[in-house]
Amino acid sequence: MPQSQFPTHPPGPSSHPPSGDTVPASQNSPSPRSLSPVLPNPGDADVLSRAQAGDHQAFAQLYFLHKRRIYSLCLRMVGNVAEAEDLTQEAFLQLHRKIATFRGDSAFSTWLHRLAINVVLMHLRKKGLPLVSLDEAMEPASEGGPGRSFGAPDLTLSGSIDRLALERAVADLPAGYRLTFVLHDIEGYEHNEIASMLECSIGNSKSQLHKARLKLRDALRAFPRQEAPQ
Amino acid sequence: MTEDPSKMTCQQFQDQLPELIASGDNVASHPHLQSCALCRALLSDLEIIAAAARQLFPIVEPPDDLWEHIESALKAEESSPGPVVKDSTEQG
């Protein structure tokens, strides 16, 4: 009997080590998100202290330590390069204004991550975009049979998923589904945290995540047929 | 609603799936899946997607000139009267 492979990750943002272009279907080891802090060197605490004291060079070092993580987060949340650049800039400006208030109750990377999420969510709210997608009806099930989303067994996903295909499919999700999927499955937040961030119910967060995964499944199954080999 | 989980229709199983997955229980042991290859395939795919997402990493580099933009904005802020900062962020 196969074991369920859905994440039961600890709360908080992720940190992934570099790897190849495909991502494995599953893993039984603990998520690297809980194991790899972004500030791995003892000297980084010194950089943080100096940045908090107003040292411009130290702040620049913080930017270069965290820029990929924050930019990737913004890009995945909004699915748009220009917006992601603007939001990354705004996140670091906010960081500069507030860094003196960081007291160390949580990891700095976790605090910065949450600050960046708030910047993105505030931006989306200002644009008037719904943070939660209206529930889209999946195609109706035939009488007594499985719905379209079940598919046929021969169209199930293979053991690994192309990373670029997954990134592209995530970017194409409706905004609400994308936010929930990014925050839960990629960044490692729990449904109660997501519900709080998006101001929706926990049940709504679960439903949005499920529908996001169903849409991704459809997109990923179509991917090999759309991407003919060169 | 079917009382006996093994007699669920696929639609009934799918309707419950978000809660079943979020519960952290081993969904693969659900009685409906013992006799339904389609729903087993669905669950397998959703697990694959969730696991693949966990392996995505922040590989995307922002443009090289982004720091210059940030630096310019910081200098502009420092040379102008202090901005009103709304505290939208939890304090660490």
Record keyword descriptors for this entry.
heterodimer; A: 230 residues; mainly alpha; Rna Polymerase Sigma Factor, Chain: A; Arc Repressor Mutant, subunit A; two-stranded antiparallel sheet; 8 helices; 54% helix; globular; B: 92 residues; 3 helices
What does this 3D model show about the protein?
The complex is a heterodimer of chains A (230) and B (92). Chain A starts with 21 loop residues before the first strand and ends with a helix. Chain A has 8 helices and 2 strands, in the order βααααβαααα. Chain A has a two-stranded antiparallel ribbon with strand order 1-2. Chain A has 230 residues and is an all-alpha fold. Chain A has helices at 42-52, 56-78, 81-98, 108-126, 163-171, 175-186, 191-198, 202-226; strands at residues 22-24, 160-162. In chain A, helix 2 crosses helix 6 (175-186) and helix 5 (163-171) packs across helix 8. Mean pLDDT of chain A is 77; it is low at 14-20, 24-39, 137-154 and 225-230. Chain B has 92 residues and is mostly helical. Chain B is built from 3 helices and no strands. At the A-B interface, helix 2, helix 3, helix 4, helix 5 and helix 6 of A face helix 1, helix 2 and helix 3 of B.
